[in-house]
Amino acid sequence: IVRTQRPNYQSEAGWRNEAERPGYIQTNKLRFLRPYQLKAIHSLQAAVGEGKDRFLFEMATGTGKTLTAAAGQSAAIGPGRLILVVGPSGAGKDTLLGLAKAACADDPNIVFPRCVITRQASASEDNEEVSVGTFQEALARNEYATHWEAHGHCYALLRAIDDEIRAGHTVVANVSRTVVAAMRTAYANVLVVSIT
CA quadruple 171, 172, 173, 178: dihedral positive or negative? Predict the structure, then answer.
């Protein structure tokens, strides 16, 4: 809500100074979503990340369903960029990502997250290997921004990428084509690079 009222509020002195912040909010009549409304939005984002495309907001009268639903429509995670690298197995995605990671090593604004996988990582991959049980437990705790299955194994990106993107960073990740549509809905700035 506040971003529609004052798009650059976070850069203003009254906001940055925590002692002045309450007065700044009151003077400018800034409105923020309440914690339960944010929880609803985060649930919506998680559902989108799981590939779901139908949602039901069920909230008591007077709790801001309309406002929450409207915020949900513009709740795509940003302002950073998400670069999704896709392509068939063996096309060289991990090799290219390794080269890109080395080239960007001095830039803290470009992040190459480790993928969580339920198989042994190859020498060219920088992935986190976990058991199927550990993977399923983390999935039940909503720890993944996205997940997919391929070739009998489970893959996921941790929700930590959301914080990176909210901080304005660029996140570069190797994913399955099957999650691209959901990622385009969940994130505000998505670029897909297809390696063939």
Answer: positive
Q: What angle do CA 53, 157, 51 make, to 5 degrees?
A: 10
Please state, as a whole number, how many other Cβ atoms lie within 10 Å of the Cβ of residue 182. Answer: 19
Is 0.70 topped by the overall pTM? no
* 111 in Cβ contact with 164 (< 8 Å): yes
Nearest partner of 72 among 36, 33, 41, judged by Cα: 41
Q: Which two tokens stand for residue 117?
A: 């996988």
Burial of 24 (0-12, 13-18, 19+ CB in 10 A): middle
The pLDDT of residue 164 is 94
Phi-psi label, residue 195: left if phi above 0, alpha if psi -120 to 50, beta otherwise: beta
Question: How far is it, in rounded angstroms, from Cα 86 to Cα 13?
Answer: 42
pLDDT in tens, 76-112: 788 899 999 998 888 888 888 888 999 999 999 999 9
Q: Identify residue 25 by its one-letter amino acid code.
A: I
Structure tokens at 91: 């096309």
What local confidence, expressed as pLDDT, does residue 142 receive? Answer: 86
Low-confidence ranges of the chain (pLDDT < 70): 48-54, 70-75, 121-125
